[in-house]
Amino acid sequence: MNRPYAELYRPNIHGQQLEMERYGMGIVEDSNDMFPFLNDIGLVNKEISEYENIIDRINNLQKRILTTVQLEQIDDLNHQITNLTLKNNDLSKSIKEKIQILLNTAQNNPNKLAQVQSIKVEFKKSVQRYLKVEESYRKKYRENLKRQFSTACPDADEKTVDNVASEMLENRSGGSQMFAQALVKRADPAQAQAVMAEVQVRHESILKLAQTIEELAQLFQDLENMVAEQDSKVLVVENNVEIAQKDLEYGVGDLGTAVTTAKKIRRKKWKLLGLFIAIILVFSAAVIGGVCGSGKCSSSK
């Protein structure tokens, strides 16, 4: 098969090569490539389902933490949540990369592009749900923290309780220490120690939770801004095609100018030839007229 301009290759989500051929100014894909495309869509859907499943598991573990008072059990639940969070982080990166590649390969095919946009919307919903789960847990943990402090320090007013809880959640470096100091000042030493031990076990997971919320917010924003990236090879070929077309246009223009000029030259040549013949005829007539006028024409008879 002749390839008028160039042959393009873009990676699919497996890192393989997806062949696309350029004809004229458009890109025509092989009709058979719909099957691997749908397979890739299926793989992304599968990963999104797994991502959703992990969100549910994290949500259930967080609910258990809020109602558990055994330190070892809390520590074990935190460990499980950490592992699931890391797994979902890896999944989110994988899904995001696959969607970007699918967007790039589908940007010139409306049917494919519609499917990729649809799956991107589904993933955005999953990320948004995960974000709500984490924010809900953070809010419930805050209320739980305030309740613990109020129980240990019944004389503390609402503003003090609220400030202590805020410091605990928002001050990553010194929040735990400030909470402990406020607790020791107001609570019974034994009770303060018990509350503080439980809070410290939970605090590390809360710090990780804050980081997860930030990362999810950034991921959602990245998906909002995600568009098809123009492949560098495509840009090079398009530039070359544009240059070639301009050269062709200039060539056709030059050829047209040359043809027009040649026609003008031919017309001028025939005009000059006609004028030359007319001059010869006039000159011949004048010579003949002069000879006859001198009487030579009659004497020759």
From TrEMBL:
One of its GO terms (biological process) is vesicle fusion. Pfam families: SNARE, Syntaxin. The chain crosses the membrane at residues 272-291. GO terms for cellular component: endomembrane system; plasma membrane; SNARE complex. It is found in: Membrane. Gene3D superfamilies: 1.20.58.70. PROSITE patterns: T_SNARE (PS50192). It is a single-pass type IV membrane protein. Keywords: Coiled coil, Membrane, Transmembrane, Transmembrane helix. This is t-SNARE coiled-coil homology domain-containing protein.
